[in-house]
Design goal:
The protein starts with 5 loop residues before the first strand and ends in a 7-residue tail after the last helix. The protein contains three helices and four strands. It is an alpha+beta fold.
Length: 83
């Protein structure tokens, strides 16, 4: 179980979003998802941070745009894992 706060902003139209969420599940990472297509407040939250696209994963408040597996592993402290 990780101790990092992980928040993932997604959109229904992003065809590879399940890859990102599946990877977090594979690593047994607890996370919260916020769908900007279903809740306009979530979209405004991103725009207030100067971010206009999804997916965005915030790990302890630091954004990672898109599905960048290596960056996510590093931010989560999982560099020694193979997958």
């Amino acid at each position: 179980m990780n101790k990092k706060q992980v928040l993932v902003y997604i959109n229904n139209n992003y065809k590879h979003r399940s890859n990102l969420l599946d990877q977090l599940d594979k690593w047994n990472i607890n996370y919260e998802t916020r769908n900007v297509a279903e809740n306009q407040q979530y979209l405004r939250e991103l725009q207030d941070k100067g971010i206009y696209g999804t997916p965005v994963t915030f790990i302890d408040g630091n954004p990672i745009l898109g599905f960048q597996k290596d960056k996510m592993k590093h931010a989560l402290g999982l560099e020694n894992r193979f997958n």
